[in-house]
Amino acid sequence: MSFVHLHTHTEYSLLDGSNKIKSYVKKCLDLGMTAAAITDHGNMYGVTKFYDECMAQGLKPIIGCEVYV
User: Which of 18, 26, 62, 63 is an S-S bond match for 37, by CB 3.0 to 4.6 Å?
Assistant: First the structure.
């Protein structure tokens, strides 16, 4: 059975995140995950970098955004 974090903030979540995208993707692979998600607060600035890094490393990217309505 595999596990995937579905609520993850990166350096692009200015007040919440500190994960660097490249190291986050590498850590997911090291832990045997087959996919990874990005759900930054109120922006999607890191999505293209995240997507490109996941595809280059063979990890399925899951794209999201945490927004307040």
Answer: 62
